[in-house]
Design brief:
heterodimer, A: mainly alpha, 2 domains, B: Cytochrome-c3 Hydrogenase, chain B, three-stranded antiparallel beta sheet, 16 helices, about 15% strand
C-alpha cells in the first residue's frame, strides 16, 4: 500500500515537473524574446501558450535518425542516462515542509552524485555519435563537469558546516523561520561560487561550451534528432530546475518566505526557483561565451580557491561563535 | 581515422604523443559566414594547421562581365558583397568612370557618398551582429538587425530594393533623393549614437568579451601588410591606409572625417576600429545631408550609359519601342579609349579594386576584381594557427568575410 502511494506521488511529481519543464522553455523564449526586442512565440495558442505542447508533439513525430557508424547501444542509452539521472535527483528535494519523496540524510550528496552521472550521458553521447563535433562537445563537457563539480561541492561545504547536516529538509530548517535567516547572508562567498558553478554545471551561457552552436554546431547532441534530442533538452531543463532548487534550499531558505502562505506551502519555493530561472535566462541574453581554456582557468584558479577560503572562514567563525 | 586532408602541408607534430586529427569545418557550419570550408588539423582543440577552401559560391562574375556592356556589368557587382551592395556599385561606377573619362555632377557625388556610407553602416552592423553571435552574445545580434532594418527600409524607399540595389549609375545615380528620404535618414542619424551606446554597453566592457578578443588573433602591422589585409583589419594593426582619405573619390575629399586606427592588431582592436568607423560614417552622412548641393544627378557626357528617360528623343529616334531603343543604345555606343586601369575604393570590408582592360569596344575585354574577402580568407591560415577552435571562429568573424565576394 505504501509503495502504491509512493508510485502515485512519483507520477504526480513527474507530471508536474514535466509541465514545468515544458513551460520553462516557453518562459525562456518569451523573456529572451522581449529582452531582444521581439515577441517570442505568438502563433500557437494565446500569446503562444500552446507552443511547448506543439514542440513536444513535433519532436515526438520527427524521424529518429541514428548515424550508421554510431555505437548503437550507447547512442540509444545516452539521453536516457541523462534524463534518468536528472529526474532521480528530484526525489530528495523538499518542496515544502514534509513534501519530499525520499527524505534521506545524504540528500545533498545524492544530488551531486546524480548530476555527475548525468554528465556521463553527455560524454557518452559525444563519443558514441562518432562525429568529431559531438566528440569535441563530449570532451568539453567532461572537462567542464569535473572542474566545476569540485568547486560546487566545496561551495556547499560552508552550508553543510552551518547546518550540520546533508539532509536538505534539515538545511532549510536550520536556516530558521525568519526570512533573513537564510544562508545567503553568512555564505555570500559560497553563494557566489555556487552560482557560477551552477551555470557551468547546467551548461548554460556563458559556459555553454559543450553545445556551443557557432563552434561545434550543436556539440554533443549534433547527431541526435527527434525525441532523443528532446530528451537531452528536457534533461538540461530539469538540471536547471534541480540546481535552482539546490540554490533555493541551501541559500535562500527554501519554502520560508517573508510571510507564510497558508493555502499552498511550496509557493515561496516555486517563486524562488523561478527567480533563479529568470536569472539563468537573463544571463543568457546578456553574456558572450567563455573559451575552453578560460573556463578551466576560472574554475581552477579562482572558484576552487575561493570555495576553500570560504570553508576555512566558515569553520573558523563557527568555532569562535559556538 | 580518415584520409589526411593536407598531405601537401608540413604540419608540425607537437612534442609528446599528441594525437592529431583533421576536421572539415563547413561548408555548412553556423559560423563560417556562408559557404566557407576550413580544413583543420587539430591536436585536441589546438589548431596545428588551417587551410581555408573557397569556391563553393563561384558564379564566374568576372567572366560574365566580359560579355556585357559596362552599364550591364553593374548588376553583377550587387552579387559580390551582398551585405554592402551599394558600396560595390559605387566602386564599379567610379572605376568605369575613370576608365572612360566620364564626369559626375557634384550632387550625384554627394548622394553616392551618402549611400556608400549607409551601406558601410549596414555592413558593419551585420558584422557586429554576427561577430557577437559567434562569440556567444546573442542579444547584440538582434539589436543590430533592428537598426539595419531602418537603413534597408531607406534603401527600399530610395531605389526599390533592399539587397541588390544597382542604384548608382555610370556618370551619376539613377534617381534623385526625396525630401522624405532625407528627413528619415536624419531621424536615423539622430537615434544612431544612442543605439551605438547600447551595443557598447552590452559588449565593450564585458569581461568575457575582453577575454575572448584582447590579444587573440594578433597581426602586427608588417604582417598585415604582407598578408595584404585592408580595411579595418589593416587599420586595427595601426597602419593608416584608407582609400577614402588618401585617394579620395566621389565626395570624400569634400567631407571631414577621421580614420580610426587600432594599435594592437588583435580582434579587439579590429572591433574598436569598426565601431569608430560606424561613428565616422554617421558623421559623413550628416555632412552629405547638410552640404547636398542642387543640380543634375547624371553627368552630361555619359548620356548613353545611364537609362534614358522614357521621353528621351534618342530613344524615339532609334527605335519603335522603348525596349528596342535601349538595346540599340547599348549596341551603338561610340568607340572608347583602349587601355587598362585599376581603381580601388574603400568598401566596408577593405579595398575593393576593379581592374579593367578595355579594347575600345563597349564591353570590357577583361575585368578582374580584387576582393578584400578573398585576401582576408587567405590570411586566415596565418592568423588562426596555434590558436583554439573557438579563436578561429572569433577570427573568421573579425576578418569580416563575405563569400559572395571571395568566390565571385
Amino acid at each position: 500500500m505504501e509503495i502504491l502511494l509512493l508510485i502515485v506521488w512519483i507520477v504526480i511529481l513527474f507530471t508536474v515537473v514535466m509541465l514545468h519543464v515544458a513551460y520553462a522553455t516557453y518562459f525562456e523564449r518569451k523573456i529572451i524574446g522581449h529582452m531582444q526586442v521581439r515577441l517570442g512565440p505568438m502563433r500557437v495558442g494565446w500569446h503562444g501558450l500552446l507552443q511547448p505542447i506543439a514542440d513536444g508533439v513535433k519532436s515526438f513525430f520527427k524521424e529518429d535518425i541514428i548515424p550508421e557508424n554510431a555505437d548503437r547501444p550507447t547512442f540509444l542509452a545516452a539521453p536516457i542516462i541523462c534524463l534518468v539521472a536528472m529526474m532521480s535527483s528530484l526525489a530528495v528535494l523538499p518542496f515544502a515542509k514534509g513534501w519530499v519523496l525520499a527524505d534521506i540524510d545524504i540528500g545533498l550528496l545524492f544530488v551531486f552524485a546524480m548530476s555527475s552521472l548525468a554528465s556521463y550521458g553527455v560524454v557518452l553521447a559525444g563519443w558514441s555519435s562518432n562525429s568529431k563535433y559531438s566528440f569535441l562537445g563530449g570532451m568539453r563537457s567532461m572537462a567542464q563537469v569535473i572542474s566545476y563539480e569540485i568547486s560546487m561541492g566545496l561551495s556547499l561545504v560552508g552550508v553543510m558546516l552551518l547546518a550540520g547536516s546533508l539532509n536538505l529538509s534539515a538545511i532549510v530548517e536550520a536556516q530558521g523561520d525568519r526570512f533573513l535567516g537564510m544562508y545567503l547572508l553568512p555564505q555570500c562567498l559560497g553563494f557566489f561560487v555556487f552560482f557560477i558553478s551552477m551555470l557551468a554545471e547546467t551548461n548554460r551561457v556563458p559556459f555553454d561550451l559543450p553545445e556551443a552552436e557557432t563552434e561545434l554546431v550543436s556539440g554533443y547532441c549534433t547527431e541526435y534528432s527527434g525525441m532523443r534530442y528532446a530528451i537531452f533538452f528536457m534533461a538540461e531543463y530539469i538540471g536547471m530546475m534541480v540546481m535552482a532548487s539546490i540554490g533555493t534550499l541551501c541559500f535562500l531558505g527554501g519554502w520560508h518566505g517573508p510571510f507564510p502562505v497558508p493555502f499552498f506551502p511550496p509557493l515561496w519555493f516555486v517563486l524562488k526557483v523561478y527567480l533563479f530561472m529568470f536569472i539563468f535566462i537573463w544571463i543568457r541574453a546578456t553574456l558572450p561565451r567563455y573559451r575552453y581554456d578560460q573556463l578551466m582557468d576560472l574554475g581552477w584558479k579562482m572558484l576552487i580557491p575561493l570555495a576553500l577560503a570560504n570553508i576555512v572562514l566558515t569553520a573558523c567563525l563557527k568555532a569562535i561563535l559556538t | 581515422m580518415s584520409r589526411p586532408l593536407m598531405q601537401h602541408l608540413e604540419v608540425p607534430v607537437p612534442d609528446g604523443e599528441g594525437e592529431r586529427y583533421s576536421l572539415r569545418m563547413g561548408p555548412q557550419h553556423p559560423a563560417t559566414h556562408g559557404v566557407l570550408r576550413v580544413d583543420l588539423e587539430l591536436d585536441g582543440e589546438t589548431i596545428l594547421a588551417c587551410m581555408p577552401q573557397v569556391g563553393y559560391l563561384h558564379r564566374g562574375i568576372e567572366k560574365l562581365a566580359e560579355s556585357r556592356t559596362y552599364a550591364q556589368g553593374l548588376i553583377l557587382t550587387d552579387r559580390l558583397d551582398y551585405i554592402a551592395a551599394m558600396a560595390n556599385n559605387v566602386g564599379y561606377c567610379v572605376a568605369v568612370e575613370r576608365l572612360l573619362s566620364i564626369s559626375v555632377p557634384l550632387r550625384a557625388k554627394y548622394i553616392r557618398t551618402m549611400v556608400a556610407e549607409m551601406s558601410r553602416i549596414c555592413s558593419h552592423l551585420l558584422w557586429l551582429a554576427t561577430h557577437a553571435l559567434d562569440i556567444g552574445a546573442m542579444t547584440v545580434f538582434l539589436y543590430c538587425f533592428r537598426e539595419r532594418e531602418i537603413l534597408l527600409d531607406l534603401f527600399e524607399e530610395l531605389c526599390g530594393a533592399r539587397l541588390t540595389f544597382s542604384y548608382p549609375r555610370i556618370g551619376g545615380v539613377r534617381q534623385d533623393v526625396t525630401a522624405g528620404f532625407i528627413s528619415e535618414l536624419q531621424r536615423f542619424l539622430d537615434i544612431f549614437p544612442s543605439k551605438m551606446e547600447e551595443y557598447e554597453t552590452l559588449i565593450d566592457t564585458n569581461r568575457i568579451w575582453l577575454k575572448r578578443t584582447v590579444g587573440v588573433g594578433k597581426v602586427t602591422g608588417e604582417e598585415a601588410l604582407a598578408l595584404g589585409l585592408t580595411g579595418a583589419c589593416l587599420r586595427g594593426s595601426g597602419i593608416d591606409y584608407d582609400i577614402r582619405k588618401h585617394q579620395p573619390y566621389d565626395a570624400y575629399g569634400l567631407v571631414d572625417f577621421e580614420v580610426p586606427l587600432g594599435r594592437d592588431g588583435d580582434i579587439y582592436a579590429r572591433y574598436r576600429c569598426r565601431m569608430e568607423e560606424l561613428h565616422q560614417s554617421a558623421r559623413i552622412i550628416q555632412q552629405c545631408i547638410d552640404q547636398l548641393p542642387p543640380g543634375p544627378i547624371v553627368g552630361p557626357d555619359a548620356p548613353d550609359l545611364v537609362m534614358p528617360a522614357k521621353a528621351s528623343p534618342r530613344i524615339a529616334a532609334g527605335a519603335t519601342t522603348y525596349g528596342a531603343g535601349l538595346i540599340k543604345l547599348i549596341r551603338d555606343r561610340g568607340p572608347y579609349l583602349a587601355g587598362d586601369i585599376y581603381v580601388a575604393t574603400e568598401v566596408p570590408k577593405g579595398e575593393l579594386g576593379f581592374y579593367f582592360i578595355s579594347d575600345g569596344s563597349s564591353r570590357p575585354y577583361r575585368m578582374h576584381i580584387r576582393s578584400p574577402s578573398f585576401i582576408h580568407i587567405g590570411a586566415m591560415a596565418a592568423i588562426a594557427k596555434g590558436g583554439l577552435v573557438a579563436d578561429l571562429i572569433a577570427n573568421i568573424g573579425s576578418l569580416d568575410i563575405v563569400l559572395g565576394e571571395s568566390d565571385r
